[in-house]
Amino acid sequence: MSNNRGRGLQANVLGTFDTVVMAVAGSAPAYSLAATTAVLVSAVGLASPAALLYCAIPMLGIALAFSYLSRIDVNAGASYSWVGRTLHPFLGFVSGWALVISATIFMVAGSLPAGSMTLALFDQDLADNTALSTLVGAGWFLVMLFVVLGGARLTVRAQLVMSGVELAILALFAVLALFHSGSARAFDWSWLGFGHFDGVTGFASGALIAAFYYWGWDVTSNLSEETRNSRRTTGLAGLIGVGVVFLLFEVFTIAVNVILSSTQIQQNEANVLAVLGEEIWPGWGGKLLIVAVMLSTIATLETTLIQVTRSLFAMGRDRTMPSALGKVHRRWNTPWVAIAVVGVVALAMFIASNALGTVGDILSDAISAIGLQIAVYYGLTGLAVVVAYRRMLLKSVGNFVLGGLWPLFGALFMFWIFFESLGELSTSAIAIGIGGLAAGLIPMFWYWRQGSDYYRPDKLDAARTVEADYVPDGAGGTNSLVHEGLPTDF
User: Fold this and answer.
1) For residue 151, what are the CA distances in angstroms to 4, 70, 85, 91, 339?
2) How many CB atoms lie within 10 A of CB 450?
3) What's the CA angle centered on 147, arms 249 and 136, to 5 degrees?
4) Bridge partners, residue 481, by sequence
5) How far is CA 251 from the centre of its chain?
6) Whole-number Cα distances in Å, 67 to 53, 192, 371
7) Non-local CB neighbours of 401 within 8 Å, separated by 6+ positions
8) Which of 227, 108, 98 is nearest to 156 (CA)?
9) How do residues 258-304 score in pLDDT, each as one tens digit?
């Protein structure tokens, strides 16, 4: 690919701790539990903890794929670049487009709960008003848009505050849940087995929703051009992020099974976590967890904005999308055109979403649609690492398992749940999920015909592209390589 990138992003802004915080915030533990638990319970019932457990194993394989690939190619487009340079540029574009579309849809799926949670702090009846929730959510979205525009340093400072408070509240309630006396049912180890799934298809639909829970930790790779020692830091932070949110998801999903009845879950589908908090700590519990969900939702809006704008920036820089998207603000070193475009599109979608029904209805279809798109780009990335490291997989057991077998299993799992769950999803969820992906064929073929260098890539081969020191151009691009030695396993 061409290295004529022009002005780049601001290099070496984020450290290891900052990046770990971004990974956890990207998966949005409180938001995911509040907005998605009812959807997951509706799909698999008491098997919710099992769905999250068995999705975590292949998800770690995908996180390993991101870790290994980030060592040999630092690129804000992440899977867009990696898949394009290993499998095929068309598949690389599809991978990048899947992230862009899923993140854009999430602007609605995330902003609505941000609005409703804010209103719920004052009056629960107001929180059920879709139009008002949309308006307040749009306000939070605009705030985060300006924070992201202000640069990676401002972004991570805001994130440290929001995610810090969120995780402190979740940790408190995780402990309180262990000592809670009242319960709807006794804990059963079978909740972590396969017995409660409605066959293979039921398991697949649950795993697809579980993938949405975890999604977002890979924001660390989209920030790679702005991270110190990014070839190590971004991948490690992603793995830590998956581990942290897995523990939180399991604790709270089991607590929901033990403490809440099926009726309570169904009647509070837009925020199960607040009801759980009220049961654990009457009076204060519900309010505190509403604060956690609100902060989590706003925090993940920020990380999602980073993912979509950095991906569009990489596409604009490669001229696989309008080149203006690759422009960087002179003062803040952020892709300001991409940020502005995402802002306009998302606000238009906020308005359109009011015609789709209640907050719960919108979340259900959006989560399933995003799950399909996540499965595509995670699956392609899992295959890409095997191709990139194919000549090195037999050099050590670690390379074979961590850089080959586990990521390949993760990729196959993602593709399997994609196809297996299609029969269970609503028509609107499939239309949004598949239709959103299909829309990407238009710019893909247009810019391919225009002769973008992206479609004539330098192949990514770990045996040839040895571990390198990426030397930034004047403002943070990654233009030259200094070879140092082969990447090894952890």
Assistant:
1) 23, 22, 28, 30, 11
2) 10
3) 70
4) 470
5) 20
6) 21, 28, 22
7) none
8) 227
9) 998 888 887 777 678 888 988 999 888 888 998 998 999 899 899 99
